[in-house]
Write a structure and sequence with these properties.
single chain, alpha+beta, five-stranded parallel β-sheet, 38 strands
């Protein structure tokens, strides 16, 4: 068995690997950038090595620094986690050449499956059905557009080296193709260093089904059943579950067997996932399920497979990397019950899921489900990396059991002042369509505005906050006697019913609230902040304080000020001073956490001032430009 292991990653997955390694008695070594000096994975490892500045391309993506750290600390093996260098065949080969065990598939297998176009050709040769599309080497815009027109819309543009939902665009109309292509290529170049793309026919009612496979160096390959990852936003998985609802025994046997053949075709060793797209217009069937790609690494959603099989996939990775045979053969692997996972991100659904960064002054995660996390209360959510706070994983005997447990867990999450997507997740999990497993990969996009509509706080919740706020007001008389009329004569009016109306600031908006007390109201969802209280209801946060009435009114910056909603880099500036713009016109494109965010004109007008320039790194709240309304001229 491996004696010392360096984890070439950060955050949740680094902590996850450390946990299993510790159980096996393996010494662990973390690596960290400037931004992660006090990160949880650094604190949990037996040893930690600094590898460079915060940007990933100067630290976590520099293979030579990782190998140097391993040599310096005497590590026997390197585990890459997911993301970063996990599917970089050249890095894997460099690790092997340095005499260090690579906890992952052979470099040849990574190469074979790492490029989507080559992988699809390989699968076609192996008899695995693939979706119609274009895999050609001609990457000119004219050729790609012509091929897309032949395939028919809607069409998907996918980065050849892509993954994690990055470098992917759905195009509905021919006239939108070139703009989407440019955006996709820029994101692919930024994220993967490769701007080549392939095209696929977009399946109208798609479901995303994937199969966990595992191989060893002795020629054995098994599957650990399937997962359903259909609920996605911007091609990024949101909720994952195992097994897939509506999967018959016959369909499962055929699809899982196809996944095993795919792995055997590349002599696969280690953990991998074969991803399929299925036509969800009827029951799942093998003849309406097509290969999309293979991820040659551990997946973010691997815990749901662990929960239904009782198998620690990281332990299997370490044993196989050490040369052992697979611990179980196919007929010994069984599944039981149902598991669901939700990805808790530091993003704000109320602002179009813009990333939320900063210090986690409050972090309250549920204790009644499995929680895989890489942060702690007081740590920082950095703008340099993926904004995941935690993965919440619930297990139940039935799908409804798991779904309700996960909804309750998401509903209990609290972070502040960093925002999160827990309210959105809770809403999703309790959607009737999801409860009936009648969703496709486009469900969130189609229903987005409704799913992200934050409800008003309950009168009972407001009443609880009111009671706590008012109990803090304890006037003292000249004699030193404590006087608390708020507690003694609350709402008292002579010859009239009690007045239980109060003024509060709820999320910065001053509201008059009529309180409705409920002695049975559950108060565990109330957390104190320096200004007041954070009320959590169904995952949605409400910051409630005493109101501050501003004589000058609530308006701050001019309505025409275009403010950066997050820290980011200006990668597109499309207007100049004096230019006329129309409402909705794209003005600026920001890149944050490897994703592009467009800022548009709030109304028709003239660009009065431009304060930002191309390639500028800007902070949250920075004024980028100002749009003045057009004036009517006689």
């Amino acid at each position: 068995m491996i004696e010392s292991l360096l984890i070439a990653n950060r955050g949740e997955i680094a902590c996850r690997v450390i946990r299993t390694a510790r159980e096996l008695g393996i010494r662990t070594i973390a690596v960290y950038s400037d931004a992660d000096a006090n990160a949880l994975h650094v604190l949990e490892a037996d040893e930690a090595v600094h590898i460079g500045p915060a940007p990933a391309n100067e630290s976590y993506l520099v293979g030579s620094k990782i190998i140097e750290a391993a040599m310096q600390t005497g590590a026997d093996a390197i585990h890459p986690g997911y993301g970063f260098l996990s599917e970089n065949a050249a890095f894997a080969q460099s690790v092997i050449d340095a005499g260090i065990i690579w906890v992952g598939p052979k470099p040849d297998s990574i190469n074979a499956m790492g490029l989507k176009d080559a992988a699809k050709k390989l699968m076609q040769d192996a008899g695995v059905p693939t979706t119609p599309g274009y895999l050609g080497e001609d990457q000119s815009s004219d050729t790609l557009k012509s091929e897309a027109d032949k395939i028919g819309y809607p069409v998907l543009i996918k980065a050849v080296a892509g993954g994690g939902g990055k470098g992917m665009r759905k195009v509905e109309r021919s006239e939108d193709f070139l703009e989407a292509l440019g955006s996709c290529q820029r994101e692919a170049k930024s994220s993967f260093g490769d701007d080549r793309v392939l095209l696929e026919k977009f399946i109208t009612n798609p479901r995303h089904i994937e199969v966990q496979v595992f191989g060893d160096s002795h020629g054995n390959v098994v599957h650990l059943f399937e997962r359903d990852c259909t609920l996605q936003r911007r091609h990024q998985k949101v909720i994952e579950e195992a097994p897939a609802p509506g999967m018959s025994h016959e369909a499962r046997e055929a699809i899982c067997a196809a996944a095993v053949r795919a792995a055997q075709a590349v002599n696969y060793v280690g953990a991998g996932t074969v991803e399929f797209i299925a036509d969800g217009s009827g029951p799942l069937s093998a003849d309406r399920t097509w290969f999309m790609e293979m991820n040659t690494r551990l997946q973010v959603e691997h815990p749901v497979t662990e929960e239904i099989t009782g198998i620690d996939l990281v332990e299997w990775q370490l044993r196989v990397a050490a040369g052992e045979s697979l611990p179980l053969q196919q007929d010994e692997i069984e599944m039981d019950g149902w598991a669901m996972e939700a990805r808790l991100y530091a993003e704000n659904p109320e602002t179009g899921f813009l990333p939320s960064t900063g210090k986690l002054e409050i972090l309250d995660l549920p204790s009644f489900v499995r929680v895989d996390t890489g942060v702690y209360q007081g740590s920082e959510v950095s703008p340099f990396y993926d904004p995941m706070i935690a993965k919440l994983i619930a297990y139940g005997e039935t799908r409804d059991d798991a779904r309700e447990a996960l909804a309750s867990a998401c509903g209990a999450v609290a972070t502040w002042p960093v925002r999160n997507n827990a309210g959105f997740l809770t809403t999703l999990l309790r959607e009737p369509a999801f409860a009936e497993a009648e969703v496709t990969t486009g469900f969130i996009e189609a229903e987005g505005a409704r799913l992200t509509d934050k409800p008003a706080p309950s009168p009972e919740g407001i009443s609880v906050v009111a009671l706590h706020l008012e109990q803090e007001i304890t006037p003292v008389s000249f004699s030193g006697t404590t006087l608390n009329p708020w507690g003694q004569l609350e709402g008292f009016r002579l010859n009239a019913a009690r007045d239980v109306e109060s003024w509060f600031s709820v999320d910065g908006e001053i509201l008059s609230v009529t309180r409705a007390e409920d002695e049975d109201y559950f108060e565990d969802n109330l957390l104190g902040t320096p200004e007041g209280y954070l009320l959590i209801e169904n995952g949605w946060p409400y910051h409630i304080t005493w109101p501050l009435f501003d004589a000058q009114g609530a308006a701050g910056a001019s309505d025409g000020a275009i403010i950066s909603p997050m820290p980011g880099k200006v990668i597109g500036l499309f207007v100049s001073e004096g230019q006329s713009v129309t409402a909705g016109e794209k003005l600026v494109t920001l890149e944050a956490m490897k994703m592009e965010h467009n800022l548009t004109a709030p109304h028709d007008g003239i660009v009065a001032m431009v304060s930002a320039a191309q390639h500028d790194q800007v902070e949250e709240g920075a004024a980028l430009l100002t749009i003045e309304p057009k004036t009517d001229e006689a």
